[in-house]
């Protein structure tokens, strides 16, 4: 349908998305379409409508006459007031005077010899090569390919210094998709421009274009076929836009009676069904046009999900207003932000912490290393401490008494274990290497260290009690296998206890393959084990002819007896019940015990953290592994369909977790309607065992595209081609279960995806759990996840006393420190200072901060202050300084001073200084004790006067002739002449 586009301006058009895309495609360039981030993909490709679009363009597209699609965020992104000064258009044949060109490159952030090289008449960047004849550009190569024209943009990071907004520099009418979600800052920027609202939420007059929206078909192709027959019978033009190739093939076959034609460009002929490639959604009748989309056919009309992507732990130290922080003297306060204050002519930035009542504490940012983070959230805040009432110290004292009693009891238990005589499994030089040959990869450094620790424990004369913590697929089984090999080499037996039948079968297969050719007999006890074989295994265990047995809780039955059990391996202890754990304790009383866990239960990890159980941690992923991209969203059928089809189109397979056996068949029928292109297999715990195993094998071999399962797949299923998992009602599952389920994918080099679906409303604990799993998407974060679990649900009871109250008041970190301190005290150990961060009091009259004029955003300044506080080496500080210069330009004096003080603090920490202060005439550095070890001749050669002092131990440096900004450098020169402590 033709429509005069000028009629639309200043009106509200509630249209299906596919019609909105068609209207925008007919607009005369230049024109802009602004959309929420999650709807950007719907407009990314308008090729089927006959027009190209620029999506989220930058300086390279400035001055182009084109159709531009921006997310709302990108439309408001920083942009230079004068774009021409920040882009360099390179064209063969044009003249570029050398001096002007190099100056321009410097302003754009490119440093000579660092970012590009000048080789006579050639300028060489990593991707771009410019060849000049005199001042004329004779040849231009981009990524090795000759070009006539190329636009060079500022070095990445420069954009944060821009003061304008992108939308102001791209002319033309503006179309707003879902204007109700447009940010407030956008509206003033639209003043004086023609604009159209594609949806509600704004006060503009409604314009009816005669479009009749179509309701979703909910997967009912029979209803679609009925409508198609009617429309085509009326001679109307029917256009169906399909997002996935697999769906295109399927619909071509399914709708064959209507003789569909696959066309590249809209429109098709009248009275004909035409199929186009396009990821649009919605559908409608508009005069003789009928516009349909794949999303309309398979959608159920549910509310569209707002997807949240886990960002990983890129910068866990960055502070955000609202965080709860613990000061060693004043206790728990809430961080409100940064404030610049001038005291005695010196300008500094201060952290503002709010305490109970009206109490506020202004803390210089240099003291950031003193603070610890409290895990409380604004939804579940800890109680704020009162300033100046000693309340925090009283809380710590109360917890300290509880901790001392607890430590005494824990040490008695540990002492009993150490005193229990055990067997020492010494190295076997001829036997040990036999197992190493079968491992196809080199051990990662963490694996190597864990193996050394386990073998050292086996060689000790008392029972081993060690936990190996490592992510799914990081190689814990290999350590267990080699430990079993050592024990079997001494003629003893090994029991490997696993939580599920499938895991028992998988480990059984692995162990048989690795021990092939060695005189080792392996048995598997599970519900898949035939009765006769089970009897033979039980007899072999009693008589000592079975060396290694792998099994589920069947191993814990009274009829399972060993002739000489030497090693018990327990995989995922948290999956066993209380009674089963008691039986494990009985079994392990006098034997070496090895626990394996990807997400140790809080109590287990807690014991390891404070040194009561030995801990080996494998945090290094195998080479080539990528983090799993994790998405949180309310359940959305369209998102389910797209996630499944995207995985199938790249040749993969999909896990779909449904949490109820009773409704799993109904869910299968629902998925068959939603994704008819996929072959779906079903497994759950109430199916016959043989059928479970057969379905799993068929899925692994590729007979099914989607495995619809309960949490039965949590452990033990390794299908390398399965790289997408969708989990329904993720809010009902615990952290450990979620983490294990997510670990079913991403076990190869292919990028993997996990979708966690939840209801629109969540309990606060569920929200924290799901946020934790999404944030901890980095490889090796299982350990961090278990710590997060401790913060969310406490640590349980260790031997009876309730500690959760103390932990909630003090935080896990402070409580753990107290417990460690009590254990060391009872053991008579001296607290080791090595590796521990000393605190230096640094009080010099020097204006030192990152000015707001330099780093405009509060978040940016907080992030850099956090990173500088956490920096452990001078090289780290230099990297941060270089990043600041690249991002914001040359450092102002106050920022230079702050970085100088950060370097000074590191040097002072290394030298063991306690404080650096000044009086009217001198700078004073104090050390904890006398005598001092220093280079006397070097001190005399310095260009300023240094006087050693015995009381207090340290030195005084005369300020005469020094400017305040020179103080840090002068003090460092002196400190370098003192020995490290």
**Unreliable residue runs:** 301-306, 310-317, 793-802
Q: Could you give the order of strands across the largest sheet? A: 21-34-39-38-35-37-36
Percent strand: 15-25%
Helical run tally: 28
The profile of the biggest β sheet is: 7 strands, mixed
**Overall body shape:** globular
Rg, Å, rounded:
34 Å
Class computed from helices, strands and strand pairing: alpha/beta
Number of strands: 44
Arithmetic mean of pLDDT: 82
Termini separation (Å)?
Answer: 82 Å
Specify the helix fraction band.
Answer: 25-40%
Entry keywords:
981 residues, alpha/beta, seven-stranded parallel β-sheet, 28 helices, 21% strand, globular
If you had to describe this structure to a student in words, what would you say it looks like?
The protein has 981 residues and is of the alpha/beta class. It is 32% helix and 21% strand. The strands form nine sheets. A seven-stranded mixed beta sheet has the order 21-34-39-38-35-37-36, sandwiched between helices. Strand 9 (136-142) and strand 10 form a beta hairpin. Helix 10 (445-459) packs parallel to helix 11. The longest helix is centred in the middle third of the chain and has 29 residues, at 391-419. The termini are far apart.
Chain-wise SSE layout:
Blueprint: H1 17-25, E1 31-35, H2 40-43, E2 53-55, E3 67-71, H3 72-75, E4 78-79, E5 88-91, H4 98-107, E6 117-119, E7 122-124, E8 128-133, E9 136-142, E10 145-146, E11 149-152, E12 164-165, E13 174-177, H5 186-189, E14 195-198, E15 212-213, H6 221-233, E16 237-242, H7 245-254, E17 261-262, E18 273-277, E19 284-286, E20 289-293, H8 294-298, E21 308-309, E22 324-327, E23 331-343, E24 346-354, E25 360-364, E26 372-374, H9 391-419, H10 445-459, E27 465-470, H11 476-489, E28 493-497, H12 501-514, E29 522-525, H13 531-543, E30 548-551, E31 565-571, H14 578-588, E32 592-597, H15 602-609, E33 614-618, E34 628-634, H16 637-649, E35 653-657, H17 664-674, E36 680-683, H18 689-701, E37 706-709, E38 722-727, H19 735-742, E39 752-758, H20 764-775, H21 782-793, H22 804-810, H23 812-827, E40 841-842, H24 858-870, H25 874-888, H26 893-911, E41 915-918, E42 922-926, H27 936-940, E43 946-949, E44 954-958, H28 967-975
Parallel strand pairs: 1-3, 1-13, 2-3, 13-14, 16-18, 16-20, 17-18, 27-32, 27-33, 28-30, 28-31, 29-30, 31-32, 34-39, 35-37, 35-38, 36-37, 38-39, 40-41
Antiparallel strand pairs: 4-12, 5-11, 6-7, 7-8, 8-9, 9-10, 15-19, 19-20, 21-34, 22-23, 22-26, 23-24, 24-25, 41-42, 42-44, 43-44
Helix pairs in contact: 9-23, 10-11, 15-21, 20-21, 22-23, 26-28
